[in-house]
Amino acid sequence: xxxxxxxxxxxxxxxxxxxxxxxxxxxxxxxxxxxxxxxxxxxxxxxxxxxxxxxxxxxxxxxxxxxxxxxxxxxxxxxxxxxxxxxxxxxxxxxxxxxxxxxxxxxxxxxxxxxxxxxxxxxxxxxxxxxxxxxxxxxxxxxxxxxxxxxxxxxxxxxxxxxxxxxxxxxxxxxxxxxxxxxxxxxxxxxxxxxxxxxxxxxxxxxxxxxxxxxxxxxxxxxxxxxxxxxxxxxxxxxxxxxxxxxxxxxxxxxxxxxxxxxxxxxxxxxxxxxxxxxxxxxxxxxxxxxxxxxxxxxxxxxxxxxxxxxxxxxxxxxxxxxxxxx
Length: 327
Description:
Number of helices: 4
Strand order of the largest sheet: 3-4-7-10-13-16-19-22-25-27-28
CATH superfamily: Single-stranded right-handed beta-helix, Pectin lyase-like
Radius of gyration: 19 Å
Distance between the termini: 13 Å
Largest sheet: 11 strands, parallel
Strand content: 35-45%
Shape: globular
Structural class: mainly beta
CATH class: Mainly Beta
């Protein structure tokens, strides 16, 4: 681990952590000079039965490939090259692919990064599906308990599939247009993330919780919602979510909502009036998008929701969770 000194103002000296070479014991993926030239080849070389922790370091560059992480016994950490690991802003390792669900056969099969193993942590990697309009086309398919730290996820429709297990997203950038954070059973916490919308869409979340016993819960805490860089997005054109299934559960709290958010806040699914079991709520949001007359079936909370409420009381012991990030 190296450190870069940066000045803030005239008096404060802050040390920002960088990761520009493989940590000890990590497999090295690089466009040239590494032991592996593709991310998938490094993943494939790892044992799925060993219980010894594993790690992969992705050097700077753009890797045009799909990456599939199958179920395994060991915890796996994937690091990307970055001059400042506490943010996504200096990420230099990008995995990109162009594939739609219509061509792939289903949502998961279209994803650029497919995480099917529990106890995976990913740091400072950019993940892109460049397909664009016309079909679901995932950047990330998260099918197990996993954590994402200082990552970027970029797509259009259905960018991030948060589908199974306990999931944690910290200081990430998620960009999309239609239902671009979605899934059916995951308990997912988004902490300090930048949520960026693109021209041509309407809905940020599409939670698919289908019964009162389904644990799925999406919570956005200390996030920032605004138009993406270079995107021309009309005021009031976006909703925080629409319910993919009839027990959808999503909360935005302590989050800055820009003018792109419609004053109604939330939308029905294609006009479906069966919203009696939907749980859409807000607490202490700010910005012009936080004001207005919300739909009658949404809730204004009197206090913030805790991480343990969403993720369960055991979340701090999960190998996918990094309590120290972004320090």
